[in-house]
Amino acid sequence: MIYDVSHRTTVSYATVVRLARFNLRLKPAAWPGQTLRDYTMEIEPRPSSVREESGPYVINRSRLTLKDPISALTIESRFRVEVQDRPVLIGGLFEGAGAGGPTVAQIRHEALAGRDLSPTCPASYLYPSRIAAMSEEIGKWARPYLADDVPIIDAGTALTAAIFAQFKYDKVATKTDTPPAEAFAKKRGVCQDFAHIMVIAARAHGIPAAYVSGYLRTLPPPGKPRLIGADAMHAWTALWCGPDLGWIGFDPTNNKLANTDYIFIGMGRDYGDVSPLDGVFHGGAGQTMRVAVDVMPLEVVAGV
Fold first, then answer.
1. Model-level pTM greater than 0.70?
2. Rounded distance between C-alpha atoms, residue 74 and residue 96, angstroms
3. What is the CATH code for 83-274?
4. Interval 211-221: pLDDT, tens
């Protein structure tokens, strides 16, 4: 599947701000089964400097410095990307005895025994992080789905289904800075909350788990036109399923594996590592942010 993606962010400030520095994480990082083409980014007003970096996790980061006073900032990221199903996700692999990969106990042992410290190594995603803090309550809740002798794919699928069934999608129940433990107690939230809860649950049982930021192809209701700019960024969880299977995405918001409907942007320990925009500036604190995202399959662009 080939997509054209645009992501436009407009930030308006209550007062003029000066010496602003921002981190942008909008350019897709390299990921198996995904090929990036024709990436461009436009920033208004033009920054004094832009420095492109990668890491420390699976991210691309643009570091902006704006020295002149500004009252608004507009950032538009555009790219074309081709997404292919990884062989491990194409029919048949998860069918039959032993097809669900190593057991939870084997994953735990291999993750702890590893000595790899690369951005995709399991060790980086085993321990609590600033947002995905350890929660005894979440760990106890997840225990029935993550028994030692259960194949990791089966365990991840069960945990995904449990969050989908027991939690209600509610845009007003939480905010960006709501702790995952609070969303867990409410049994309500959005994709960010559900991804964090799954990350915490898996790590509590020794399973390397990462927070993934990206986009999800959305389809309009039957008979309704597709609304340009109405899409949004999405979040899901990736579990390390051993050296042969690697990282596999599980989406607890929609109860499915991450397939060709999903566009990978970055992977980190939690939202803080992959947030699309953060930074600091001198000036008043009041600000308003508007985001418009469009994820368009190429056949729609071509009119097929």
1. yes
2. 51
3. 3.10.620.30
4. 999 999 887 77
